[in-house]
Specification:
Oligomer: single chain
Strand order of the largest sheet: 2-1-3-4-5-6-7
Distance between the termini: 66 Å
Helix content: 40-55%
Number of helices: 9
Number of strands: 7
Length: 241
């Protein structure tokens, strides 16, 4: 019998899973399903809740009320497995990756697994076989949430800082592409050593005159970010001395 995966959600993650799995899955709009919870095909092997974190418990409750007995997995980095442990066959499938964009590096990001019952692990193994990606890493909810927080710094905050740079360039009439190689080199250097050890700039030097001039040049809404990051750099420099 052909096994089918059920993907609840049409956001970036749900769409990426559907694109990767093709005919091996069915994708349902989560809002429609929660209003009218239809039954799943008899060959459904597991349900993946690619829904907002604050909706995970609602969907797990909906599945429980439908007397659905197949395994369900939420895809959140910070939501503990205990939040849906009232559903006997529950687990977590959390990919530490942003799914916005077309080029998803399916073989280059970690996936975290957690299950109530070890007998559910073969289900996740089969899911990864169908996705054609390596096996996941088994971690507790507490450890997974720590990785998720670190990923916010690595991805979301870093992306936001580059976005601020691009906005400042636009406001100032300068070419943002001039900084592309600098960004790439800075990231490459930072991950090849201890980033604090190669820190430079006016905050690191304690150059207050330059810091004040920079603040005068920035729009007011960017000044607070500049101050916070500069203060953190200066604090770390003082800690190291």
């Amino acid at each position: 019998m052909i096994q089918i995966w059920v993907i609840l959600g049409r956001g970036p993650l749900g769409n990426a899973l559907k694109s990767r799995l093709g005919d091996k899955c069915i994708q349902l709009a989560s809002r429609n399903w929660i209003k009218d919870p239809i039954d799943f095909p008899s060959e459904a092997k597991g349900v993946f809740l690619a829904v907002p974190d604050d909706q995970i418990v609602n969907f797990a409750n909906g599945l429980l009320q439908k007397n659905i007995s197949i395994p369900i997995f939420h895809c959140s980095g910070v939501t503990p497995l205990s939040s849906i442990s009232f559903y006997a066959k529950s687990g977590v499938w959390y990919p530490m990756q942003s799914f916005k964009g077309k080029n998803i590096p399916w073989h280059d990001f970690p996936v975290f697994w957690e299950v109530l019952d070890p007998l559910m692990l073969p289900v996740l193994e089969q899911f990864h076989m169908d996705l054609n990606i390596p096996k996941g890493l088994i971690h507790s909810s507490e450890m997974r949430s720590k990785y998720h927080l670190a990923a916010v710094f690595a991805n979301n905050f870093l992306n936001h800082q580059i976005g601020i740079l691009q906005e400042y360039c636009s406001l100032s009439g300068i070419n943002p592409s001039f900084f592309d190689s600098m960004i790439e080199k800075s990231i490459s250097n930072a991950i090849s050593t201890k980033a604090y050890d190669i820190q430079t700039g006016p905050a690191h030097r304690g150059d207050q005159i330059t810091l004040e001039r920079h603040l005068e040049m920035l729009p007011e809404r960017m000044q607070n970010i500049y101050k916070i990051i500069s203060s953190s750099i200066a604090e770390i420099k003082m800690r190291e001395n």
